[in-house]
Amino acid sequence: MKLQRRFSLRFVFLIPLLVSVVLSSVVVKSHYDLVNRSISAEYDRLKESLWRSSKVISALDYSFTNYYRTGGNILVKHNTFLENDLCKIWPIDAVLRTESKSNGISAVDINYMLVGNEELCDPTSPIYKRASSQVALAPVLSFMHDLDNYLIGIHYSDKEGYIVSSPDTLAQNVTSEYLDTMKARPYWRATDQNRGEITVSGPVNSMVLGKEMMSLTVPVHSEESYEGLISLDIDLDTLLYSGDKLSSKIRIIDRARDSVPGSAFWVRELVFEGVVFNHTIFYDFDLEKEVKQFFSQEKYSLLIILLVYIFSVLVLFYVNTNAERSHFRDLAAKDPMTGLLNRRGFEAFLTQSTHEHTFAVAVFDIDNFKSINDTYGHDVGDDVICYIADQLEKNIRADDAVARFGGEEFVVYLKGYDEKQLIRSLERVRIAISEKSTEVIEQGFTVSGGAEIMGPTFDLDFVELFKLADEKLYQAKTSGKNKLIY
């Protein structure tokens, strides 16, 4: 009998693997969607931050433009200092933080500085008077600078060659050469050309700050005169920092200077109304970092999938082992040719059965079987044996049993309510075998049998029962065959 596994070894390993691949694909897709949502959220945050910055600089532009000619001389309440042909002016903190402050409102830090040539420190010079009319708005720069952590500084650069800057640390690095060439610089001209709009420049690496920054500039006009510009500097590292939500970095480039790299994904152009952008943001995909983050974030899901795979393989192995164990039990208890019980299996069946009613043990034997083998060959002889096995199984109930004891000898166990019922059943089986035997060989064949009928209180073992039935079979064989002796 050929060993039949319930599942092949290929099935045992490949099907759980296929399921694991499907589950892993779901995890990968879920992680991809999460990264997608995180990138989208970061893009929205980035755009919102830039939009806020544009609103800040627009508000400053409005304030400077409309407050440009305000009278007064509040520079007298500032410190002045001449150094290397430069005039530096900064607020007297105690005065500006308390004077004219509403009662009950806490004082705030004011941090700005004016830087210009020597004339800026001369109260009689036109530049001093011009700066004095504008410096009232300088605290606004300080307030605006503290709105967001990515804002490095806010500056007002005047056409007369001075700068109002917050925080003051930025103004301290201004040189007289820078002031002399300020109006010749590209950003000054580009800002003037985009009148009524905000101009975005960068990213550039600031030698002074040691950071990559981007600037938003807007021109300040008095009627048709270009008076100066307001610049808002943004720390790109802080602006683009996404924490641990993303493994790779979001970057921004100026398309006029740089091209989008091959590692760029989710490429989007920045477009705001009233803002002159020539910039693109993208996700700079780093495969190694993405893989590391994937395994870091999904390690528990992947561990569960691995455990599911191992468990599935073990379950299938267990099923196969049980199938093999059952197969070997069948080998020990069944006849390989017919699939009927063999002698050992039949004895085990009788041992496990409860004999609450009358029962019969019958032995059937094919008449003249040697002649059939000699005439038709052993293949036909095997067909005859299989035919009888089939007929016997068809004519007994589920709680009865039939066995082949080798050669052409078959043993049947039948339960019944009385002896007459059992005799009728056994005769029916014998006649059915003989009548349909022509289906196997043309001349047909007959069977003989001997049966021993016992009540529920019998005290004989199987060997004795079989011996009694076999003796009656012998009587049937020697008294004409094709009959059942009981």
From TrEMBL:
One BP annotation, GO: negative regulation of bacterial-type flagellum-dependent cell motility
Organism the protein comes from: Vibrio amylolyticus
Record bears the keyword Transmembrane: yes
InterPro entries named among the record's database cross-references: Diguanylate_Cyclase, GGDEF_dom, Nucleotide_cyclase, Rev_trsase/Diguanyl_cyclase, Sensor-like_sf
Reaction(s) catalysed (UniProt annotation): 2 GTP = 3',3'-c-di-GMP + 2 diphosphate
Predominant location: membrane
Protein name: diguanylate cyclase
EC number: 2.7.7.65
Keyword Transmembrane: yes
Molecular function terms, GO-annotated: diguanylate cyclase activity
Cofactor: Mg(2+)
One GO cellular component term: plasma membrane
PANTHER family: DIGUANYLATE CYCLASE DGCM-RELATED (PTHR45138:SF9), REGULATORY COMPONENTS OF SENSORY TRANSDUCTION SYSTEM (PTHR45138)
One Pfam family from the record: GGDEF
Domain GGDEF: 357-486
UniProt KW keywords: Membrane, Nucleotidyltransferase, Transferase, Transmembrane, Transmembrane helix
Localization per Swiss-Prot or TrEMBL: Cell inner membrane
Transmembrane segments: 300-319
